[in-house]
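Worked Example 4.2. Consider the chain below.
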Amino acid sequence: MDSKACSSLALAGAVGLVGGLIGTAIGKWLFPSPSTAASVQRIHSNAIWEEKVSYCRVMRVGSTIAVTGTAPVDSTGSKTHAPGDAHAQTIRCLELIQQNLAKVKLDDPQRESIVIIRTRMFVTDISRWTEYGAAHGKWFRLHPPTTSMIEIKRLIDPEMMIEIEADAVVVTH
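Applying the procedure from the previous section yields the following structure tokens:
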């Protein structure tokens, strides 16, 4: 066998091996066993993009909770809240995160609570960081999480100026 044939065979073997590993991993991650699925909680909202993109608003696995990127939508879920107002949009995102975290089922609500440990703010105009930061600071004044503020080119709706992700944990008192 010449070196070109050996290289092709090695590449095909590597692709097959990687494909098999990815397939196995995806099968375990996307399609958990019934016993694992019972410990996963998904919460959906009325955002128009959830069904189109196939995601949930909040996901709890064990004591870890992830909140997907939360945009400043109005109560209908179809329009942007307070176009042009960075402070109001930030507060709206945080209100929506709080509303959805309140839907997370706790095993013992008398002894457990949810603590936001990290936020990520994706903003379309970093020069307005003080407005986003003031709203975030007002919201988390007593219990600040870790955070990042990252400028991005744009969000799904041009009137949206910010989107916030949050990570939280369930803690026992």
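The longest strand covers residues 112-123. The radius of gyration is 21 Å. Compare this with Example 4.1 before moving on.
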